[in-house]
Amino acid sequence: MSNCKTHKTCINEALKTAEIICNERGVKLTKLRQTVLKLIWKSHNYVKAYDLLDDLKKIDSSAKPPTIYRSLDFLMENGFIHKIRSLNAFIGCTHPNEHKECYFLICDNCQNIEECCSEQINKVVTSTTGKNHFEPNQVTLEISGICQDCIS
Amino acid sequence: MSNCKTHKTCINEALKTAEIICNERGVKLTKLRQTVLKLIWKSHNYVKAYDLLDDLKKIDSSAKPPTIYRSLDFLMENGFIHKIRSLNAFIGCTHPNEHKECYFLICDNCQNIEECCSEQINKVVTSTTGKNHFEPNQVTLEISGICQDCIS
DNA sequence: TCAATTATGTTATAATATAACATCAATTTC
DNA sequence: GAAATTGATGTTATATTATAACATAATTGA
Ligand SMILES: [Zn+2]
Ligand SMILES: [Zn+2]
Ligand SMILES: [Zn+2]
Ligand SMILES: [Zn+2]
Q1: Radius of gyration of chain A (CA)
Q2: Domains defined for chain B, CATH in brackets
């Protein structure tokens, strides 16, 4: 669970970081993409594409599914957000700069998602895929269960 | 990649195992569920729900989406098949009796999926979730990349 | 036997995602 | 700076994946 005091800071950080990374990479964080990223970061929770679309429509009533999916694709490609496959949902990346193989702890009770990194998990994945002579590209690790706050 | 000689044996094994487990648990592997499991096992590859539905329609033309999804739900609940979340697809479990937290190696090139188990991965997942005071329930670990046969 | 439970049938629709083509804007090339 | 190229967005339509809701049938079990 996130205990941010002024969540506006989280949003601004996310946008600023994305801006910097985009500049480095020579890709464009257009107005639309900024808006979508901002909407995703409206909370620390995951969001569903069509809820996002509804939000976007409040700003630009002409928005349509491709509008949102294209922005989501861009933001994913650049590591600013992640897709949670077990929920068909999207969430802002908490550390786009140093993100490697991360995993997600998804609470079945409060729906909170924690993005974690573990050098250990990285190593084990690498070593076990190595044993299988498999060259990993993308690792999806999602663990659902009950989070700290919901265990009582 | 699977190198079965007589794939009919794989299918029969899967059905027999499911039968035994169902008897143990007092749940019913009905004719329909058997048929769906058989269709899933028509190959060692993953199958998409609607492709499965098309196959089923050849046998029972009145089959509809709920027909297939209910059977899929049953087969998943009982661990006879797995859902591959990154592909929205389904695949037969190669070891429903001893299946624990397994992971899937998905080849981006030949589409083959290998179901693997690793005591090591289990341990790491347990230990890292433990550090987060998170009680895991379901672990989804899917690794896409290039398999042994496709690395050249 | 009849009530409860479980499985299947059936219709409709919800939810998620992409294809295809048009237009517009920014960048590069000449 | 006009023309060409590329990248982004607009727009329409449709594909794909999945479930809700209610009806009927089959099974169980008291
Ligand atoms: Zn915050
Ligand atoms: Zn991340
Ligand atoms: Zn086989
Ligand atoms: Zn399995």
Answers
A1: 16
A2: 7-92 (1.10.10.10), 103-151 (3.30.1490.190)
Mean pLDDT of chain B: 95
Report how far ligand 4's centroid is from the alpha carbon of B102 (Å).
6
Ligand 1 center to A21 CA (angstroms)? 21
The verdict on a CB contact (< 8 Å) between B143 and A125 is: yes
Task: Report which residue type is found at A51.
Answer: D
What is the spatial distance between Cα A144 and Cα B68, in angstroms, rounded to a whole number?
Answer: 25
> Phi/psi of residue A23, each to 5°?
-60, -45
* pLDDT per position as a tens digit, B47-81: 999 999 999 999 999 999 999 999 999 999 999 99
Q: Nearest CA to CA, how far is B139 from chain A (Å)?
A: 5
Instruction: Tell whether the model's pLDDT for residue A151 goes beyond 80.
Output: yes
Distance from CA of B113 to the nearest CA of A (A): 11
Its pTM surpasses 0.85 = yes
- Classify A133 in phi/psi space as left (phi over 0), alpha (psi -120 to 50) or beta: left
Strands B135-146 vs B102-107: parallel, antiparallel or unpaired: parallel
pLDDT in tens, B91-149: 999 999 887 778 999 999 999 999 998 888 989 999 999 999 999 999 999 999 999 99
